[in-house]
């Protein structure tokens, strides 16, 4: 008798705590902390040439195709006059590395527009 009463008074509190934990964990997972360097405004615009985008699931494939197998990069761009080739991580890979894919793409498109790191 006593244990039944105890269960019914404790169960809602446990459920509430579990829901709160899930909500907090979900909110944390939806906000990657890292951001690639933002380009200067003059380069932060759509690329008007022919854009080739390749996406890879693995960082070693990205680094291989970026011709920098020993680097730490997770994306790169090969700009040319009328064509630009960008190599990007998959959305999931970017997420796992703490980035949002649109931020990485924006960074690489700026390279297509002529931006070079300092
Ligand atoms: Zn860059």
Shape field: globular
**What is the terminal-to-terminal distance?**
73 Å
Strand arrangement in the largest pleated sheet: 1-3-2
Query: What fraction of residues sit in β-strands?
Result: 15-25%
Ligand kinds: zinc ion
**What is Rg?**
22 Å
Q: How do the helices and strands follow one another from N- to C-terminus? A: HEHEEHH
Whole-number total of structural domains: 2
| Total number of strands | 3
Mean pLDDT across all residues, rounded?
A: 84
From the helix content, strand content and strand pairing, which structural class follows?
alpha+beta
Tally of separate helices? 4
**Largest sheet composition:** 3 strands, mixed
Q: Please bin the fraction of helical residues.
A: 40-55%
Polypeptide structure, described:
This protein is α+β, with helices and mostly antiparallel strands. The protein folds into 2 domains: 1-31; 41-112, no CATH class. It is built from 4 helices and 3 strands, in the order αβαββαα. It has a 3-stranded mixed beta sheet with strand order 1-3-2. The structure holds zinc ion (ZN). Zinc ion binds at residues 107, 111, 117.
Quick description:
This protein is α+β, with helices and mostly antiparallel strands and 118 residues long. The protein has helices spanning 2-29, 59-65, 91-96, 101-112, and strands at 50-56, 76-79, 83-89.
């Amino acid at each position: 008798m006593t244990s039944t009463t105890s269960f019914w008074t404790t169960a809602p509190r446990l459920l509430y705590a579990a829901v709160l934990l899930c909500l907090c964990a979900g909110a944390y997972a939806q906000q990657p902390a890292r951001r690639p360097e933002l380009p200067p405004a003059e380069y932060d615009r759509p690329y008007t040439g022919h854009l080739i985008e390749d996406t890879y699931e693995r960082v070693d494939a990205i680094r291989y195709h970026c011709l920098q197998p020993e680097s730490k990069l997770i994306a790169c761009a090969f700009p040319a006059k009328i064509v630009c080739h960008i190599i990007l991580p998959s959305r999931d890979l970017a997420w796992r590395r703490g980035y949002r894919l649109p931020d990485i793409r924006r960074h690489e498109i700026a390279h297509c527009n002529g931006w070079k790191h300092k």
